[in-house]
Amino acid sequence: MDFQFIQTLSFIAFTLILVFKYKARTRRLPPGPWKLPIIGNLHQLGDSSHKSIQRLSQQYGPMMFLQLGAIPTLVISSADAAMAIFKGPGGGHDLAFSGRPTNLYVAKKLSYEYNSITFAPYGELWREMRKIAITELLSSKRDSNRFEL
User: 27, 23, 105: which is closest to 72 by C-alpha?
Assistant: First the structure.
């Protein structure tokens, strides 16, 4: 046999082994529709995304995984599934989902390194800023300065 043929065959076999090992090692995700390489599941949403998500949830269940472009998204489409995740056994996972995306360059620049109330991660700083904002916006001094309609 030709050496180049053996080399090519071994390269293909090695690549297939790596792909299957990587797929076996990936995280266990909820069921979801097949996705395209770059756009993910965006082509399946259509014009009215809420109707498309309802149709997909009837097929894949109340909890499904969608890839919206480059953003992996967990879609929860029933109140029971949401309660089970956020307030379930062991304290739930509400704090894990309470943050905001920190990989947005524009948000980082506009919020002074995520130090504004709109993009600050959930924590002591955000709670303090929220307390100040609520105090200032809902104080009785502000009520007297409001305009009448």
Answer: 27
